[in-house]
Each structure stands twice: as structure tokens, then as C-alpha cells.
Amino acid sequence: MNGVESVLQENVERILRSECFRNAPSSRRLLRYLADHAATGDADQLKEYTIGVDAFGKPEDYDPRQDSTARIQIGRLRKKLFDYYQSEGREEAMVVSLPKGRLRLLCEPSGAVVVEPPVQEDELQELSSAPVPPPGLGRKPKMALIFLAAILCIAGGYVAGRLGAGSSTSGVAPSPWSSDLDQLWSPFVHSARPLVISVGNPLFLQFKNKTIYRDPSIEKWDDLLLSPSFAAVSKALGNPETKQVNYYAAVGEVNAAFLLGQRLGPRQPGISLFRSSQFSWQQMADSNVLFLGPPRFFNERLGSMPVVLEIGESPEGFRILHPQAGEPELYTYRDPPGFFGEDGEARVLVTHAAGPNGNTDVMTFASNSTFGRVGAVDAFTDPVFARMLTAKLQGTDSAIPRYFQVLLRVKYKGGVPTETTYLLHRKLVRR
After folding, report:
1. Are 8 and 107 spatial neighbours (Cβ–Cβ below 8 Å)?
2. Could you write out the DSSP letters of every residue in 235-256?
3. Alpha helices per DSSP H over 199-345
4. Of 71, 74, 90, 133, which is the most buried if we count CB atoms within 10 A?
5. Residue pLDDT, tens place only, 277-299
């Protein structure tokens, strides 16, 4: 990243922390998206279609001529930037702008640019004339390659080499870092110990005829063989020979692992990736660990750590062991309860605990929604959210506790996290 791009990122970071943008999640998302593409040098290739698909989760057959979401959000971002420089940013030396007809952010000295009121949204028709890729094209081949590469890494049990030793080989700029993020992640990014991302890989059973069977409530091979549902399926198939399969991972885990590698990699080069079924207690004693998956994947291990947990797992949801005034005792895993879909909301429990011997750190992102886990990881590595969260966690000495649990609510649409909200937290103490 050169000097000009660094200045742009610093100013964008300041804007994202402002009161003007605090309650404008869509404008924050678009501003960060455009800033990242400005840093990678491909902002001039952006089109309304790519913004709709990549920044706002539109489907591959999205047609900007029929759906003006991206165009409207671009207009709103221009207005928010105008409002910011009319209020909180009026004394700033540099001005970030998005000129009409362009999708590349500019960052110029305040005396060199005239901040004009934005045009109306219905005047932004120059963007809609960009060609629209036919259905099925666009980013699908690229995303398929990324997904395949991540799955191969998980199946192999490790990532060959290191992720991100200070620069991104993916062509995507890392999210801006901040002092608040440094507080949250200090034990993991300022440690000489390696950092392991452990991805939950659920138990499947494969019949000889290639049929795949899965019971989402069971993660142990012996329990699966004894379940009545498995017996019924096996009988219907003629009781064929079976074998255990543990090499699949949810799409949310792939995305979350990618985000962690992208955003933490420049500060912690010793990152590797393991599937949870192959992760050992010895590795937990030697490394700092980030767990991604449903609570049942690592709840037993987490309960054996030398900390006293304040929020636990139950069949219905996350249970608050000592509710405070006005707090419910139970937070269901998702709404609608038990519904496995791409639209809805989920609760995510983030737990930072000590490792087995007390000399390593473990953080878990636990939810029964793969999309909820992506939203939680994105929030925990987002400077704006980190600022709010550290303010919640800070005690009288202005320091956050070493170990804690944070409960979040993540809303998602079409499998894309759209809003992450803080619910409550608990400070944890060593046994």
C-alpha cells in the first residue's frame, strides 16, 4: 500500500468511527468496500452490478436496470460524506469524496476540492448503463475457486506455509487496524506462539452406494450408529456397508476462516488451519486457537479450560447462568427456532478463555448458524464494532478483561450477514 492509499485508509477509518456514519450500516459497508478496492488498485473496474453482488449480497442474476439498490446506496453514501464534511469533518485537512459518475474514492487536501451537495438519486443514471454479466457469470467462477481451495486446505488438515506475512496475496486489502482491535486481539497477534484456526467439520456417514447421511444433532460415530433415524435410513437402503466421513465444512466456516486469515495475517504470520476432528489437546496446550463451529463441536473442551464460564449451551439455546436484572435466562440459537435457512437471525457466543495449561489463549465463535458465525467474525475484526465492544468490556481501569464471553445477535439475508448487534457480556475468572 503506497502513501496515498494509506492516507485514504486512515481518513476512511476516521469517517467510519464518526457519529454521522454510526447508524448507517449500508453506507459504512459501501465505504469500506470502495476503500478496499481503491487500495488494491481495481476501483476503476467496478460496476454497479459488482457492487450489488459483492457489497450487498445480490444474486448472480441481479439486474441493475430492474433493481436500483446499488445506485440508491451510492447516492446515499455521497450524501453521508457531504453531511460528514459539513459537521464533524469540517476542520479536517483531507477530504474523501466519490465524484459523480465514478466509483473510485478520492482523498485530496481540503483546499483542493469543493464539497458540493450530492445530486439526487434519480440523477445517477450514468452508472446503470454499465453492461450486466449474463446469469451464472460474474463472480461465480472466482468464488468457486476460492471455495474449492479452502475446502482442500480443510480436508488436508493444514494450510501449507503461512497465511499473510504482512501482505495479501489474494489481491484483497486487509481491513484497517485500530487500537480497539489491538485490545481485543492482543493475546493472539502479539504472541510468539502459533495461531491455529480450527474449523468445525461435521460427521457424515457414507453408504457404499455413495449416499451421504447426516444427523445434525449427533457428532460421535458410535452415537450415530445407534440412532433410530440411521437405522431406518440404513434399512430402507438395504443395510449397505458404511464409513465415517469428516471432510466437509459449512460455507460460513470457509468465509470466516478466510476473514481471519486476511485481517489477522498481517499481524500474526504463524497462522495454520486444522479441522476440529483432527485437533488434539496437545495442540491446544502449545498454540493459541480460534474455534469456528456449532457449540457442540467444542463445548466439552471449552468446559475443561481453567476458567469459570458464565454462559453455557443447552438444547434450546445459550443459557445465562446468572442473569442480571432485565436479562432473559435463555437466548434461543436462532429465529425462527430450529429453522435452517438463508434468511433469519441467530445468536452467536464468543468466548475468550485460557488454554488447557493456562499459558495459551482460546477464542470460540459458537452458533448453530454458519451465517451467524461469519457475521460475528466480521464484527470482531471490524474497527467500528470493536470500538463499541471495547467500551462495553472496559472496567474502571479502562482495560478490557483478559477472558470474557460476548453474546451477539446476527441478522442475515440470502446467507449474507446484514447486521450484528451486541446483547451482553460476562467477565470470566480463572479457576
Report:
1. yes
2. HHTTS--EEEE-----HHHHHH
3. 221-226, 228-236, 251-264, 281-286, 299-303
4. 74
5. 777 778 778 899 999 888 776 76
